[in-house]
Amino acid sequence: MSINLPELPYGKDALAPFISANTLDFHYGKHHKTYVDNINKLIDSTDLAKKSLEEIIIIAAKDTSKAGIFNNAAQVWNHSFYWQCLKKAGGGAAKGAIAAKINSTWGSFDKFAEELKNAGITQFGSGWAWLVQDGNDLKITKTGNADTPLAHGQKPLLTIDIWEHAYYLDYQNRRADYLSAVIQNLINWDFVNANLT
Ligand code: MN
């Protein structure tokens, strides 16, 4: 079994002007694809070649000798998840069951949005901002580099990639503007609701 690069769930220009086709060309076509190519080379002819991507992440997270495998496997998973968290004409206030959970946890959607944006702004260097389910609770978290809530027993509901390659072509150093644009215009709440258990 090899790890696949999933198709983008929309056209390369679907997220413009908030995320340009140029960014998706590089981000999906180069960065994400490279992580897929790398993990397949790293697990080729090893016991991990028969495992699912999620199993590889959990195994490698517990073994410091497998840091390269963890980094590439987690980046494949994180990116495949991130693309699904976005859609054309998405964003704005949450809809469905997640909306009630967000309100009961943070008091209002605006407070939630502010904390999610703040998690992205305050992550030093590369990483990811997340909405996760931790037991029965919703939490906003951030992870560095390739790290993923899957390695910490949490269930990801939503992520925003905050590596510079996610926004630099469109926003240069203005990470906060990218985070606001994604939260207000691109979050796929149907996908977030589908992840709730
Ligand atoms: Mn990325």
Short synopsis of the structure:
This protein is mainly α and 197 residues long.
Task: Write structural notes for this entry.
With 197 residues, the protein is mostly helical. It folds into 2 domains: 21-84, Orthogonal Bundle (Helix Hairpins); 97-195, 3-Layer(bab) Sandwich (minor pseudopilin epsh fold), CATH 3.55.40.20. The chain contains 8 helices and 3 strands, in the order H-H-H-H-H-E-E-E-H-H-H. The protein has a 3-stranded antiparallel β-sheet, sandwiched between helices. The model has no long low-confidence stretch (mean pLDDT 97). The chain binds manganese (II) ion. The site of manganese (II) ion has 7 residues, from helix 1.
Question: Topology of this structure?
Answer:
Blueprint: H1 21-43, H2 53-61, H3 67-84, H4 97-106, H5 109-122, E1 127-134, E2 137-144, E3 155-161, H6 168-171, H7 175-185, H8 189-195
Antiparallel strand pairs: 1-2, 1-3
The protein binds manganese (II) ion.
Manganese (II) ion binds at residues 27, 31, 79, 161, 163, 165-166.
Features:
2 domains, 8 helices, 197 residues, 3 strands, minor pseudopilin epsh fold, mainly alpha, three-stranded antiparallel β-sheet, globular, Helix Hairpins, binds manganese (II) ion
How large is the count of helical segments?
A: 8
What percent strand? Answer: 5-15%
Mean pLDDT: 97
Poorly predicted segments: none
Widest sheet, order of strands: 2-1-3
Q: Total number of β-strand segments?
A: 3
What's the CATH C level of the largest domain? Alpha Beta
Number of domains: 2
